[in-house]
Structures
1.
Amino acid sequence: MKKPIISLTSDFGVQSQGVGIMEGTIIDISSNAYVIHFMHGLPDFNTTAASRTMETVKSLPVGYHICVVDPGVGTKRRAIIIKAKRGDYLIGPDNGVLNSAANLLGGCEKVVEITNPKYMCEPISPIFHGKSIFCPAAAYLSKGIAIEKFGKKLRFEDLVKSPYNEAGMKEDSIEAEVIHVNKYGSLNLNILQSMWDKFGVKKNQIVVFNIWGKRVKLPFVETFGDVPESTPLMLKDSYSRMEVAINMGNFSRMYGANVGDVCLINKAPMRSRKA
Amino acid sequence: MKKPIISLTSDFGVQSQGVGIMEGTIIDISSNAYVIHFMHGLPDFNTTAASRTMETVKSLPVGYHICVVDPGVGTKRRAIIIKAKRGDYLIGPDNGVLNSAANLLGGCEKVVEITNPKYMCEPISPIFHGKSIFCPAAAYLSKGIAIEKFGKKLRFEDLVKSPYNEAGMKEDSIEAEVIHVNKYGSLNLNILQSMWDKFGVKKNQIVVFNIWGKRVKLPFVETFGDVPESTPLMLKDSYSRMEVAINMGNFSRMYGANVGDVCLINKAPMRSRKA
Amino acid sequence: MKKPIISLTSDFGVQSQGVGIMEGTIIDISSNAYVIHFMHGLPDFNTTAASRTMETVKSLPVGYHICVVDPGVGTKRRAIIIKAKRGDYLIGPDNGVLNSAANLLGGCEKVVEITNPKYMCEPISPIFHGKSIFCPAAAYLSKGIAIEKFGKKLRFEDLVKSPYNEAGMKEDSIEAEVIHVNKYGSLNLNILQSMWDKFGVKKNQIVVFNIWGKRVKLPFVETFGDVPESTPLMLKDSYSRMEVAINMGNFSRMYGANVGDVCLINKAPMRSRKA
């Protein structure tokens, strides 16, 4: 029998004890759960990087996905559960980190505010809702407790907005934002692959990537090895969005690009046949 | 049925193969165990940081907690198991890293030295007792082998002392030590919350934190968001002790404070009503 | 009943979501598997460090060991499974990272190229064969699918060669290569302990380690504490090879030594009895 999958994402240090304590809390309540440490060590308090990470739970089996990037912990910000149409539950603070994930998982089916102390771990720590509220919520959901039991229904459109919008596409350009930088220094942009397909760039066609006043020519390819070593490129990432990278190199370091930076992508002008 | 929880703490690199090998060793002996990677990547050979981490296993379910911060591996230092009154077993080298945890788990009920080769993994590596001695001990304990089988009884008071003492409290000041710095740069001090409560500082009262010749005013609050962004604060941490932090900032980097530093906390003088 | 052990090694960021997604992919196919995160965060694209890490799966129980250090992902490089004589299966790209592990696990019993789409996860990502090909292969193998079902047989000697050779031993010297540097800054060399034993250095005998034009005297000992603090030493590592370290110090930082560096070890001349 398949075990319910509960994933954990946080800006805690990788393998800080907070991470293990959240796992212990879940297992203590739902001994049959399968806990996956999805991503930890996100940049401190960075809701953009957190939102992007939560989007990528789409590549996990249907499950219960917790996000603890929560600079407002212990203040009046709400704790919420979103049920997504794919069947997943997203659990975390109402600070925008879950919205985009809900959209990519087919849209929001239901949202509730978590207020029922029955499904929390007492005493509630004012600085660690991951342990006191979010993990217990996921664990009880995984045991079959209905979402309605956790608190009153909210409207998806009343939640705090996502930290980033979708990119803006014009006929010849896309204005985008860097929403993640991975270990290799590749950039992930807020451009959905479905938007890119409409933008209409062909394989191996070159686009111009403008960032920090620099103009970088990027061939649009399928994989890194499609260009020579140390060459920049653009491709579809593994998680619904567009990625800018350097084959065997580090784009972020080379161009000083980071989460939150804006950039502009232009279709390169066709070369004139005349000089 | 609940699985026995075995937690692992080390100064190995996070996700170095040593970590996975310890997990494999445990599972090979006790296939029903649930292994939690509690904390790895502690500062090399730092018994203070290790001791502080082991204290926080109090937030895990009752279990078997292994510490492999062990600069004396392969020398004559003893390998020990402490049974704590809460029901947990603490397993590691006799270098002081387990004592404070035992105290916080209700006190020591029993200590034995691990000498019985029957519960070790042969051949004994002279540089990796985590694999050869500590993990097998935890795994066999989790299968119900009695602590007395592992070796002869020791007295808790004869163990190597903890790397830090409890803070010293006077009427108007506490002399303390930094025993941990987390990823956000917050400091954890060797002041128990029970001592702090006796010290008698009220919510929102300001104390003066002296470190490296600097004097920092800290309001005592419940959570980070109780003060404006970039403001220093003092609060109760999630694990029995006191914490110094900056809301949305990094105290350690700002003031150059690190594990082992001493500091003095003064009650701020009441302001005179006269000029 | 023992669960099949599947280990994961990659140059992905430690706890990047790619790591969790590979775990989810495995569990979705083989719900009884026990996944061990063996090592992540290896230096980007570094096949030497990857090969060395894969060698050390010898310290895990017999299992299914995946390596995703794969700069050629999506190009024509082959995906392979090696069955080793000890009983383990090694799964990854044909870029040399699995060969040395196979040798240390008793030799290669069989190799196949993975080409059968039945045991892949569609759609195949051109940049993430860890998820689309390697993890599904390990998961299906762990459920008992025979290796022959995955594709056509290859010859071990036709695979891409290991990124490093075994060290070269002469009567009084060994020419070696640094194949790993761990978190403590200790160096692991491509010298098998069996070669070292033949080289004939006695316990506490001093050898001269030549690197970057420096000559460092190293006593050959059993454990770090056999020499005073801050003293360099040579010992047998936990994984079949030789290690150079500093007791309570960092050899790599002190001497600027890194993966890929070559070094020469000389037997120190016997001291003459005359002045």
Note: The radius of gyration of chain A is 20 Å.
2.
Amino acid sequence: MILEHALLPVRPGREAAFETAMAEALPIIRRQPGCLRAEVSRCVEQASTYLLLAEWDSVEAHEDGFRRSEDYQEWRALLHHFYDPFPTVLHFEPRELSLD
Amino acid sequence: MILEHALLPVRPGREAAFETAMAEALPIIRRQPGCLRAEVSRCVEQASTYLLLAEWDSVEAHEDGFRRSEDYQEWRALLHHFYDPFPTVLHFEPRELSLD
């Protein structure tokens, strides 16, 4: 499993419109092959910052699958105009850390 | 539920030692009152960057509870010397976004 991570800086004053657009966009990402889960949360300390976390089977499922799909064009049209600056997307690999 | 979020920039070359220390530190945070879950993952694109995500009952459980506890002194001694720069910790509130 790979975790897609993006801190989303939404233009101040556009938060409600962004949430409406994201409500439309989340089913698009969730239905992608290899997408296990996608959730959005809102920052307590910086109310215009949101966090997108999506679990994928692999980085390829996200980058080669979703990003090259027609669905991605819809995702992009719904969301990208809300961001300033444009977010950096990173991937994280869970670490099973134990003392054994 | 509140999500504690921190991107952890570990000094390059110290990743293995950090992971050993984090294996010792995770049980400390997980046993705090109000801590529901704590996970660490490692960035694919920037191998010295880790992501800490911890679920808490409330911001207060984290900030007034854990951060003022003796356990926090142990957490700090184990981990803080690995970071450069020191991480920014933020809290996020999950949004149930739907079109209904």
Note: The CA atoms of residues 5 and 34 of chain A lie 16 Å apart.
